[in-house]
């Protein structure tokens, strides 16, 4: 029986939860916004048969610390990821691979630009990095507006609609999954952390930070993996990412929405492992 351990580590003074399983070359897994490393729970055992899997709860999410008085930025998240790889001795392995879903994909692109030659290969799945988000989204974090935003996003109707836009197959929205999402969104600590990220959006945007212009510097193989039926971040952004990332490969997963590691775990593992081993 493969052992999987849940651990805590301090990165830049903040406590982070991570899961470790398997041995061999390193495979780092980073989740997306309003999520946690638990989004990878269906694929970690299969990946751990081949790799040393390290799945991290990003700062502000899951069971990691949720500070509100830090400057959330692409460079800060890249620094935290680099520190994590160093402190877990991941850089000692022959190859260091990474998979980033949604927001996590954007952070791994920043890591690859700011710390070149750290990753051997990269997989980005359904990432928000190529969206052009208007500046006024930051208004949601203002004191006079945020209580209205909290009331809206914590309503069961809004949560169910959001979940329906994330999944192609609605059978994945079980009562238990829905209940966990309601709990997460209604947590004041989680909400305040999300508002802090929203406040700092300009520092978390590939284009506004200038990192998007530097993507052409990347020389590592990159697989862009996307659910063909993603209504949350439509597949046209996969095509944009493919055009902007030199030498990248694009693969769509049919009958799949925004979270292929949940909806199509077997296909997700097969495609990623084939790319990493080729």
Quickly list its features.
Rossmann fold; 8-stranded mixed beta sheet; 37% helix; single chain; alpha/beta
Could you explain how this protein is built, in words?
Helices cover 37% and strands 17% of the residues. The protein is an alpha/beta fold. It has one domain: Rossmann fold (3-Layer(aba) Sandwich). Strands 1-2-4-3-5-6-7-8 form an eight-stranded mixed sheet, sandwiched between helices. Strand 3 (26-30), helix 1 and strand 4 (52-56) form a beta-alpha-beta unit. Helix 2 crosses helix 3 and helix 5 (156-166) packs across helix 6 (175-186). The radius of gyration is 18 Å and the shape is globular.
Blueprint of the fold:
Blueprint: E1 4-11, E2 14-21, E3 26-30, H1 44-47, E4 52-56, H2 74-87, E5 96-101, H3 103-114, E6 121-125, H4 143-153, H5 156-166, H6 175-186, H7 188-199, E7 222-227, H8 236-244, E8 249-253, H9 260-263, H10 265-277
Parallel strand pairs: 3-4, 3-5, 5-6, 6-7, 7-8
Antiparallel strand pairs: 1-2, 2-4
Helix pairs in contact: 2-3, 5-6
Q: In summary, what is this structure?
A:
The chain is an alpha/beta fold and 278 residues long. The chain has helices spanning 44-47, 74-87, 103-114, 143-153, 156-166, 175-186, 188-199, 236-244, 260-263, 265-277; strands spanning 4-11, 14-21, 26-30, 52-56, 96-101, 121-125, 222-227, 249-253.
Q: Report the count of strand segments.
A: 8
- The helix/strand class is alpha/beta
Across the major sheet, the strand order is: 1-2-4-3-5-6-7-8
Oligomer: single chain
Distance between the termini: 28 Å
Named at the architecture level, the CATH assignment is: 3-Layer(aba) Sandwich
Whole-number mean pLDDT:
92
Number of helices: 10
What is the CATH fold-level name?
Rossmann fold
Largest sheet: 8 strands, mixed
According to CATH, the homologous superfamily is Alpha/Beta hydrolase fold, catalytic domain
In CATH, what is the class?
Alpha Beta
| Helix content estimate | 25-40%
Shape: globular
Strand content: 15-25%
Low-confidence stretches: none
Order of helices and strands: EEEHEHEHEHHHHEHEHH
The radius of gyration computed from the alpha-carbon positions, rounded to a whole number of angstroms, is: 18 Å
């Amino acid at each position: 029986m493969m052992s999987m351990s849940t651990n805590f580590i301090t990165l830049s003074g903040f406590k982070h939860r991570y899961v470790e399983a398997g041995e061999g070359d390193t495979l780092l897994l980073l989740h997306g916004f309003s999520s946690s490393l638990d989004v990878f729970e269906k694929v970690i055992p299969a990946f751990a048969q081949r790799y040393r899997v390290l799945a991290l709860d990003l700062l502000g999410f899951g069971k990691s610390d949720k500070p509100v008085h830090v400057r959330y930025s692409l460079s800060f998240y890249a620094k935290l990821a680099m520190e994590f790889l160093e402190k877990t001795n991941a850089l000692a392995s022959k190859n260091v691979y990474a998979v980033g879903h949604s927001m996590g994909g954007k952070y791994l692109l920043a890591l690859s630009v700011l710390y070149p030659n750290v990753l051997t290969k990269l997989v980005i799945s359904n990432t928000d990095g190529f969206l052009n988000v208007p500046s006024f989204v930051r208004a949601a974090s203002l004191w006079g507006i945020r209580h209205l935003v909290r009331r809206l996003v914590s309503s069961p109707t809004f949560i169910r609609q959001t979940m329906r836009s994330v999944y192609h197959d609605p059978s994945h929205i079980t009562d238990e999954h829905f209940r966990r999402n309601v709990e997460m969104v209604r947590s004041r600590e989680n909400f305040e952390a999300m508002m802090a990220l929203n406040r700092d959006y300009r520092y978390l945007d590939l284009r506004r930070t200038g990192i998007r212009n530097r993507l052409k510097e990347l020389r590592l193989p990159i697989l862009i993996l996307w659910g063909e039926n993603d209504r949350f971040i439509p597949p046209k952004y996969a095509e944009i990412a493919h055009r902007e990332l030199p030498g990248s490969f694009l693969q769509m997963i049919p009958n799949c929405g925004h979270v292929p590691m949940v909806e199509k775990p077997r296909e997700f593992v097969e495609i990623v492992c084939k790319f990493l081993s080729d």
